[in-house]
Amino acid sequence: MKLSEWEKKVLGMSVGILLASSMRIFVSGAYASLEKTFFYGIMFPSGLGIVLFLLFSFIVGKIQRKTGAIIVGIYALVSLITDATEYTHLIAALALPVALAVLKEAEIRYVLMGFVGDLALRVLAVGGEPIDFIHTRVLLVIFILALAYVLWKEEGQLKSPGFELYGFAVLINLGLVYPNAIMRYSGIKTYYLTQFVAYSFVVALAILISPYLTGKKFTPFLLIGGALTLFVQPLGIIGMPVALASALALLEGAKKSRFGILGALYFVVVSVLAIGAYVGRDIGIPFMEDHLEALITFSAIVYAFSSKSVSIKRPNTKEVAVPIVGLVIVSLLVLAAFHPSPITAEKKTEIIVWSYNLHQGFAPYKGSFNGNELINLLKTYNSDIIAAQEVVGGMIGDGYQDVPLLLSAYFGYHYEYTPAVEGTYGVATFSRWPLEIIEERNLKSIGQARPAQKVKIKSVNLTLVNVHMGLSPEERALQAEELLEVALKDPMADIILGDTNAEPGEKAIKILLNEYYDAFTERPPYTFNWGNVDIENIDYILIRKGSTLKVKDYGWLLDVEVSDHRPIYVSVSK
Fold first, then answer.
1. Residues 264-309: pLDDT tens digits?
2. What single string gives the DSSP state of each residue in 83-116?
3. From CA 499, how far away is CA 217, in angstroms rounded?
4. Is the per-residue pLDDT at 540 higher than 80?
5. What is the crossing angle of helices 317-337 and 193-209, to 10°?
6. What pLDDT is attached to residue 60?
7. Residue 532: count of CB within 10 angstroms of its CB
8. Is the confidence at residue 1, as pLDDT, over 80?
């Protein structure tokens, strides 16, 4: 049975959304699972998802369309039930090759509408992962179930995707379709909902104009040139949409069938290298750390010279207008429902200050996204200033969530973000009042890059240092000395707070206590607890000796499991 034009449109749009979603879930779940193996020796599911992905990439061209429909349907239903990516990535490992197989037969003009649809879901989730929020989760599932329905209707086998389509998936998976990732790759560290929404239209237009670059000999070079702009910040803000439009323009010429298993292996290798751009020293590939722009450029070159620039039927006015109008409606709803820009509170004499490690946007177990849970937590507890660590702003390993944007949009916070690597992973300080960066740096590290951020909040005359320290005692002792150097410069920091990774009595803490005192006269039982397997007391709020700050109250929230750390707080006045 042949598909109607309407069914072809549904197939193209839905496969664009499925491809983007399944890549995010597959990589996030594999990363979360392997991290648990690395730290705690838990072997399931560990690398099982990667094995399933490689095996299924080998056989996807031999399965019936109805089997593909069942896999897509299961992925949709599982996504509706849970966002526990450690387990859902096992079905995403099957859904991703199916998405690429369907992409091979889909009309590109409809696929482009699907990519804009996924972008609209990201805007509706205010920069979060759509599966993390019930309203965007339901919409996502409806689109994916529609694809399953259309696949079920037609008889025959799926077509095997070749190396080139996996090469396309690699580029998209490195962040080319995510406005927040592009902005942060380009060196824009702080922005708010209005700017995010506005730049989403730039990305949408890049997607929709891509057919006008098809059939041009210069398109592969335009792709490479766009990727190269990442080396010259902030030119990536212009170059990356050009690279995206060029990559999509080459998509029709990437619909080949050879060497698909090599393409799948290439996808896995590049994903690992991309994770290595953040934690390379910790996973044995230190050469990758902070070199994501080189990886994107390399992937652009591979894709550009393995694909052909083939002319396609250009979308008509309606096919361009409909996704733009949809994005406009979504954007207006979001701007009306949330804070487009920060809201400055009135001055207070008593201020509640939190320190909280957010665990890269993941809940402590099962690789679940924690954006929704974090928002519910902060709705319950009224904090004026939050010093957060392990804050992600568009990182491949956590589904490209934008936590700074999420919190500023929901609560009207001002914020300053200090990424340690690649503009998308570091520390952030959120405040009811405007902040000024005094100094930011990566502390000397043996392992993963460790940031320190010194900010001044003039409205309440408070200066603080937000820090995330290293994993070895020797490293932390060196970092403590450097941290004091930062803190005691004029203007001297009233507070040092954050995740030190150091227990009370360790040398690093003793060094800090030479100039600061612990705001907690009684330490909490713990501030880090992973399933009662690993329990540590490593988060601190330290007050400078001689400071006029007075500690009115302090505490911790041990029953909160939004992250593997627990929030700690003080109430202070001057």
1. 999 999 999 999 999 888 888 989 999 999 999 999 999 999 998 8
2. --HHHHHHHHHHHHHHHHHHHHHS-HHHHHHHHH
3. 52
4. yes
5. 170
6. 97
7. 7
8. no
Element (H, E) at 435: none
pLDDT of residue 284: 87
- Locate 548 and state its tokens: 């006029």
What's the confidence (pLDDT) of residue 413?
98
CB-CB contact of 342 with 412 (8 Å): yes
Spell out the alpha helix ranges (H) of 163-235. Answer: 163-171, 179-185, 193-209, 219-228
> How many alpha carbons lie under 13 Å from residue 235 in its C-beta half-sphere?
11
Instruction: Measure the CA angle with vertex 441, ends 189 and 197; round to 5°.
Output: 5
Phi-psi region of 13 (alpha: psi -120 to 50; beta: other; left: phi over 0): alpha
Q: Quick one: average pLDDT of 154-173?
A: 96
Evaluate whether 254 touches 335 at the Cβ level (below 8 Å): no
The DSSP 8-state label assigned to residue 246 in this structure reads: H
pLDDT-derived band of residue 466, with 50, 70 and 90 as boundaries? very high
- Whole-number Å distance between alpha carbons of 487 and 525: 27
Alpha-carbon distance of 422 to 443, in angstroms, equals: 16
From residue 202, give the alpha-carbon distance in Å to each of 14, 159, 242, 394, 465: 22, 33, 10, 17, 36
Q: What is the pLDDT of residues 11-20, one digit of tens each?
A: 999 999 999 9
For CA atoms 153, 154, 155, 159, the dihedral sign is negative
Distance CA 454, CA 187 (A): 19
